[in-house]
């Protein structure tokens, strides 16, 4: 099928590449010329495992077999010219919905602009499919606007649940596909087009749910709120464990064995960051307020503040380990990305902690295998060292804040030869305290004795 993807950010590029991999002929459009130029040479403008290989593979398939006939894959091209979406049967809108400056609400200007500008190129019967995370009620409003200009176009809300670091697999093999389609005479034919697009994941066992617009929109925000709540729950338990001398990792293992609870997303530590969970729970609260249902989500305020407290607690713990002051001390921060296997530093807990320590007089050195370029743009005043050995040299304390494999696999004996003082703070509860202590290290963690 001919498909367009409007917005080539994180979601859009992954979606476009995966749709081509599923056999469709895809055009990806973005206003950012630099981004499009990079994509035209099969280079994703961000780090995502497996994505560059997928882009190169599809491009090679297109060259070998002629545009549109890759072996097993479809075709994929990128352009800044929106006009090129004309002729596609389905148009996916994948633009960002960042948090508005100084407010909790989502900024919908990119979504509104994408729908408005795409409308000029839609033919009767075309689907325009929203994938961005939006406040509930947005799809209904966009559909009204759209039908004023293109009455025969159909709008679907089809939220995306991919995780950074697993984006390709999550898109090719999603747990579930949610189609938000109004319950009218076109519902079945519209769902059938989506079934054709997602034929391979459906055949592979992905669940499929057809709902109305508001339910589809809420599936996304409710899922992210649940995940955030689960993380903050275990981090609240970590606070309690610290007060009571208990071990939150053992607690999580034990409660996680109850399959009604489950062990996933019960990793206590520095808490959640990134471009989704923090902003999505805030936008959800703001939207609930607009709907007069703010009481229903007051618990999310607590989820947010438990999460932010982790960062402050980490700084306190580091100061305590550094004998009460950071002055004259070198603090090595392992990790800048908000999580491993990503170069995304949006709302990164690691960088937030690094910046706080620097503000309090510490000589901070940050290292990360992928995210330093992005980190430098966001926090230009921090000192960065790409080489792990150099970053560890002369450290008075080492803070493991993003659990990259390079750091979880560190050898305590070898690391001891690089640092000035054997002090390690495990912000993600991923190291074995016994081995580190046996090698003479002061080991401290959030929620462990
Ligand atoms: C999240 C959702 O998982 C995904 O379904 C949605 O589409 C987008 O938002 P993502 O932001 O990529 O995905 O990361 P995720 O793996 O959910 O992690 C979010 C944050 O939570 C990270 O900072 C991570 O370190 C933290 N986290 C996760 C914990 O602190 N503890 C855990 O147990 C799990």
UniProtKB/TrEMBL annotation:
Assigned keywords, A-Z: NAD, Oxidoreductase
Enzyme class, broadest EC rank: oxidoreductase
Biological-process GO terms, alphabetical: polysaccharide biosynthetic process; UDP-glucuronate biosynthetic process
Binding site for NAD(+): 30, 35, 97, 133, 164, 279, 346
Active site: 276 (nucleophile)
Keyword Cell membrane: no
One term of GO molecular function: UDP-glucose 6-dehydrogenase activity
Pathway participation: Nucleotide-sugar biosynthesis; UDP-alpha-D-glucuronate biosynthesis; UDP-alpha-D-glucuronate from UDP-alpha-D-glucose: step 1/1
Enzyme Commission designation: 1.1.1.22
Top-level taxon in the UniProt lineage: Bacteria
Signal peptide start and end residues: none
Keyword flag Oxidoreductase: yes
Binding annotation for substrate: 161-164, 220, 265-269, 273, 339
Stated family: Belongs to the UDP-glucose/GDP-mannose dehydrogenase family.
Protein's name in the database: UDP-glucose 6-dehydrogenase
Organism expressing this protein natively: Tersicoccus phoenicis
Organism ancestry: Bacteria, Bacillati, Actinomycetota, Actinomycetes, Micrococcales
